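Lab notebook, design round three. We kept the backbone fixed and only want residue identities now. Task for the bench partner: fill in a sequence for the structure below.
Input structure tokens:
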């Protein structure tokens, strides 16, 4: 089941944040379509992506002194905690939870991208901070 279709409404920075969000939506849709034995590997792939995705944004926050008051990383940690709790249940055989988790995370992402991620991208732009610019020069 496709739980979230990528569209222009999700574009935030025309750069690295959009690239990681495209990957996020792909992982989420694989999870949404996963049935039976496919549920656990799909969730593991989703968790692996999400750990990288959130760690990357949190590194950007630290690099450009994004105010902690916005609780951005707290939202990230909550999503990962729920995903890990659901993983225990899916590993125990409740594989039908995979599309339910994917749908819930899709609903969360719409709001998170429009608020937290957008504020972070605006803050980075205001600071003149371009993630990966140093990679491009390397
Ligand atoms: Fe994000
Ligand atoms: Fe985020």
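Proposed sequence:
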């Amino acid at each position: 089941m496709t739980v979230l279709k990528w569209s222009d409404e999700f574009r935030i920075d025309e750069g690295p944040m959009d690239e990681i969000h495209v990957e996020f939506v792909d992982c989420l849709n694989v999870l949404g379509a996963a049935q039976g034995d496919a549920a656990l590997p799909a969730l593991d792939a989703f968790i692996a992506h999400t750990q990288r995705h959130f760690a990357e944004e949190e590194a950007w926050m630290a690099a450009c002194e994004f105010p902690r008051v916005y609780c951005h990383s707290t939202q990230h940690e909550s999503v990962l905690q729920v995903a890990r709790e659901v993983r225990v249940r899916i590993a125990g055989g409740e594989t039908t939870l995979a599309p339910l988790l994917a749908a819930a995370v899709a609903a969360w992402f719409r709001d998170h991208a429009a608020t937290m991620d957008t504020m972070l991208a605006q803050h980075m732009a205001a600071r003149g901070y371009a993630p990966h610019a140093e990679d491009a020069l390397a």
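Keep this in mind before ordering anything: Residues 57, 72, 76, 112, 116-117 surround fe (ii) ion (ligand 2) (CB under 6 Å).
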